[in-house]
């Protein structure tokens, strides 16, 4: 893959909470900017952060019910104090006031810095999400073994 | 313990949410199937996943109150959209439709693959859970130092 | 920094839930007691655990709203069964009955054992928390790059 001197960082993005996901993306972009080979593995609720905008997912009854609640990177709220969307708006205001990058901006930075965005195939199957539902910058859906191979080589491994 | 060439994976299972625990077990079984020496350290809510079925825990008033809400691996619900148990049922249906292993099946796979299931002694004391309350495949309850020794040697360390 | 033989442990404390934070501090103090060079990086809700007691944070409207809900290490509740503070009280009782160290005691142990407590600068800016709001034992606020440098060298990396 790469020479042995390159440090690596591997992050599982399981959560769909705006704040936890943000923590994951900030570490990923920082690591990549510092020259680390970085990959993110999006599973369960984390898939929301690499979903296309305004796209309803799901085929069957349950999949569609899930699809209605499945947001994109701009629509997910924080883990605490969301107050029906108010928290999301408040945090965005506060971040803007401090010139902190928004989640969509962080994701774009990750892409520009070459962070590998890997969707979890099994979660996609269960949640009835197709590759077409995801942003084009994501890799092909991968199985758990691909994640484990990446993480085995990594100097930093996190589960967000 | 083992020769230096064997890669190792160490996962803390703190959460009692069906979906997070599932993420932990999928990574653990995948790692073990790929030949990694894998251990899981069950603490706080995570202990529910190695509890015997239909067994009430707790001695004192608080312990019994906790025991009433303490489920087994089949009874825990997802972190989002549980809707009073409906979500648990819906996710199980969706997983079955995709032939994805259930949590009890994943735990059995972990046992068959030799994943070490270590209960956290201190959590057990606080929550008034005895070794008899846990499945027989779990190891003796261990302290934090045993976990740290495992994790120190591990190539993948996660906190779920 | 240190010689190559010293093992290292690096923990991101993102959560503000009493139980998750406790998991983080127990691992950190255990690792430090076993001679590992240990650092904790406090970000988002985790900052509550290194905040001074009885100190209101925030300057602007949103910051002050957040400040009202922002607790200190003694005021945060568990992730499950808090029941408006009852759970916090119940867990404290149960821990005391087992002679398990409380969170403030665990933090003091961490300080005494030389665990580095690093506050995340960016979270502090967004949440309008100043260095004066934090306990004196915390280091200067640091950026993500400082965390990544620590984590790169660490044998155990966790995100709590």
Features:
homotrimer; 160 residues; alpha/beta; four-stranded parallel sheet; 4 strands; 40% helix; 12% strand; globular
What's a concise summary of this model?
The structure is a homotrimer of 160-residue chains. By secondary structure, chain A is α/β, with parallel strands linked by helices. Chain A has helices at 18-33, 61-69, 86-97, 103-112, 121-127, 144-153, and strands at residues 8-13, 37-42, 116-119, 156-159.
Helix share bin of chain A? 40-55%
Record field, number of beta strands of chain A: 4
Query: Greatest interface and its residue counts?
Result: B-C, 30 and 30 residues
Q: Can you count the helices of chain A? A: 6
Residue-averaged pLDDT of chain A: 91
Based on Cα principal axes, name the global outline of chain A.
Answer: globular
**Strand fraction of chain A:** 5-15%
H and E string of chain A: EHEHHHEHHE
Specify the oligomeric state. Answer: homotrimer
Uncertain spans of chain A: none
Radius of gyration of chain A: 16 Å
Quick one: biggest sheet of chain A? 4 strands, parallel
Helix vs. strand class of chain A: alpha/beta
Strand order of the largest sheet of chain A: 3-2-1-4
N- to C-terminal distance of chain A: 25 Å
Task: Describe what you observe in this structure.
Three copies of one chain form a homotrimer. Helix content of chain A is 40%, strand content 12%. By secondary structure, chain A is α/β, with parallel strands linked by helices. In chain A, strands 3-2-1-4 form a four-stranded parallel β-sheet, with helices on both faces. In chain A, helix 1 (18-33) links the parallel strand 1 and strand 2 (37-42). The interface between B and C is medium-sized, with 30 and 30 residues.
């Amino acid at each position: 893959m790469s020479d042995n001197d390159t440090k690596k960082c591997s992050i599982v993005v399981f959560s769909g909470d705006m704040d936890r996901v943000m923590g994951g993306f900030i570490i990923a972009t920082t690591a990549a900017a510092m020259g680390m080979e970085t990959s993110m593995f999006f599973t369960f609720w984390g898939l929301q952060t690499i979903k296309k905008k305004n796209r309803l997912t799901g085929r069957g009854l349950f999949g569609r019910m899930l699809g209605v609640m499945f947001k994109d990177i701009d629509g997910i709220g924080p883990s605490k104090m969301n107050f029906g969307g108010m928290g999301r708006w408040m945090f965005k205001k506060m971040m803007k006031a401090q010139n902190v990058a928004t989640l969509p901006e962080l994701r774009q930075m990750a892409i520009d810095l070459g962070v590998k965005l890997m969707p979890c195939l099994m979660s996609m199957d269960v949640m009835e999400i197709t590759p077409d539902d995801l942003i084009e910058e994501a890799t092909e859906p991968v199985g758990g073994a691909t994640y484990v191979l990446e993480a085995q080589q990594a100097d930093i491994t996190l589960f967000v």
